[in-house]
Amino acid sequence: MSTLVRRAVTALACAGAVTAASACGLVAYVKDGELPPDRDGPAASAPEPTASPTPDPSAPADGGPTDGASPGATPGGASPAGEFRDGPVPAEKPSFDEGSLGPAPPPGDFTASVEYEIKRFVNAFGMEYDPESSVECGELRAEEGATGSCDATYAGHRAVFEVTVTGPDAFEYETGRLPVSREAVEERYRYRTGQERVRCDMEEYAMVTSASSGIVCASAAGDRAQVEVSSDGSGVAFDER
Q: Closest Cα to residue 195, out of 216, 227, 222, 225?
């Protein structure tokens, strides 16, 4: 099992930074080991700079926010997993619009800055903005060594983030799995292949770690690739081997 980890986030000056490679010095990596508490497993092992992630199977939800997969659907009654779906080939490489998140909170509100950054990351990882997504952390002390938990919801899924304050204006956070949008993945696969009819073998939202997600996409023209989700929320890659 793998864990998504992000660290060195300067919350006050850089909440809502446009990219992980910004001046805020945001770093992301995936580590091997067991999931942290409250994420389907015992305490996590020590982080490593690099790792080979493993796919994470998901389970249907009974209703309400969950940290497993749900059979949720997009508005308009989209087709179930396994069917080819038609859509226009994007003229430009699709990317997540962080402007949809709205303005960042005032720099003096540390807890709000943490919530905003985690919400940004969850939506960017999903590659599709969910206007009903939310993050609640409770009150976080802006003191080095302080810890707390944040509950994030996205597309009917729930993820628990563990937060550690690393300085007066910085923190790091980690979680086990996050959902990605099938519509967003298929849009990016259309751009990759130039084909309008594609399918990705997943529900409308699938819980994954990153890199080798266990998702396979195909086009009606015979293209086929495994999906690799970037751990920094910057998009996906398609491994055609």
A: 222
Burial classification of residue 157, based on how many CB atoms lie within 10 Å of its CB (0-12 exposed, 13-18 middle, 19 or more buried):
buried
* HEC profile of 183-234: HHHHHHHHHHHCCCEEEECCCCEEEECCEEEEEEEEECCCCEEEEEECCCCC
pLDDT over 70 (residue 8): no
**Which H or E run contains 238?**
strand 236-239
Structure tokens at 234: 């910057």
Token pair of 20 as six digits: 């992980």
In contact, 154 and 179? CB cutoff 8 Å: yes
- Give the list of residues 6+ apart from residue 176 with CB closer than 8 angstroms, or none: 1, 3, 4, 35, 36, 39, 40, 41, 56, 67, 159, 160, 209
In terms of phi and psi (left: phi > 0; alpha: psi -120 to 50; beta: otherwise), the region of 141 is beta
Q: How many CB atoms lie within 10 A of CB 214?
A: 16
Express each pLDDT in 158-175 by its tens digit. Answer: 999 999 999 878 899 999
Mean pLDDT of the chain: 73
